[in-house]
Amino acid sequence: MSKGSVERAPEFHIDKIDLSALSAFITSHKATDDKGRYLHWDQLKWRVPRADAKNIWLAVKFHRAMQEKVITITDEKNIPFSYSITHSMEAKLHQVIKIAGGSIGAIADNPVSKNIQQKFLVSSLVMEEAITSAQLEGASTTREVAKKMLEEERDPIDEDERMILNNFFLLRHAERQSKNDLTVDLILDFHKIATIKTTENNVVPGEFRQNDDIYVEDTTGEIAHQPPCYNQIPTRLQMLCDFANTDHSGSNGGQFIAPVIKAIILHFMIGYEHPFRDGNGRTARALFYWFMLKSDYELFRYVSISKLLKDDPKGYGLSYMYTEKDQNDLTYFIDFQLDIILSAFDELQRYLQQKTEEFNQVLTLLENSGYNHSLNFVQKDIIKKGTKEPGRIFTAKEIASSYDVSENTARTYLTKLVSLKLLLETKDGRTKLYLAPSDLMQRLKSDRT
């Protein structure tokens, strides 16, 4: 995680503040600036008169303290973490909940896209997240090569591909475990799946680090974050599990924490604790998805946050640093992640539009051919892929995995396309291969009704 050098914010303790001396600043400055930004001291001090900077900061902190929510997780000095929900964050949170509480069809707003979702969208977008999550951690394999590996279910040829394959299995496992409570053993399972057969930083899959030689540097080479002592990890992760498993629905007078906020906090805490020698980021993001699915936000099965985190690694790192260097105020990280989630929804909508347009192009060709009524959705989508990539090889195993059908059913679909001369059949040993002919588009155009 890339982090810049961040100055620790002046501490605020309401019982030690002379409110009368700050009254003018409290009137003129709120928790956010006039653009709704939740600025850290490192950002605010350059935007205000130098002589008044500290007093303005204390006034800002006063407003934040008035709406602060303290959670049951503490740092190693027993100081609790907290967060605030500002007006601008309320608007973002409302939008996230409104969209995430709906269906993929609502985002698609298109019957073709709904059909796409029902058949293969889950698998396709889980692949996207698996790839970009690994790339965020340094994997150098290209997206195209990685996706082909996952689609064809071939063995990885190097550690970068292994990391991507592990991520794919990890997200699937997180989904399968989404109805269970969080335990330390489940966190260890997540990590083991994420790092099995990898060697980066001498990682031991499914085991905590056994010393304190792990730290995060800033861009100047200074230590930006020293995680809690390794011998506290089991206790501290149990505290995290207790937080995850506590009912925060607000029923019976208890504390309310919006599920998306809670999922973001779980994400943050794995990065903060850094319990493993490597794979902390992948484990943290899997935990985020696990909790969102546990909270019945099914739309998160289709959303890739890692793609956007990869595009803004500096912002990702700073959101961690701002929290740690301002009295455990999680608001910085939460606000950043809400922006990432909303951008991910926009990315999803663009992805659906693209897939719909591609599919409609093939439908137009098929409607003017003799094949339209003899092919099902899966077969039409195979044709779409074949027209985009002449010479592409399909296997029954790949089709079964991509469209959630049996291998026998997949083989039947492919054989039908061979009989219509829309695919070519060959063998590699005992495995049947199905090839998209180079003139597939012409074959569709030439068979007019």
UniProtKB/TrEMBL annotation:
Coiled-coil region(s): none
UniProt cross-references to Gene3D superfamilies, sorted A to Z: Fido-like domain
Cited InterPro entries: Fido, Fido-like_dom_sf, Fido_containing
GO-annotated molecular function: ATP binding
UniProt binding sites for ATP: 216-225, 278-285
Active site: 274
Positions of transmembrane segments: none
SUPFAM superfamilies given in the database record: Fic-like (SSF140931)
A Pfam family annotated for this UniProt entry: Fic
The keyword tRNA processing is annotated on this UniProt entry: no
Keywords: ATP-binding, Nucleotide-binding
Domain Fido: 182-339
Protein name listed in UniProt: Fic family protein
Organism name: Marinomonas transparens
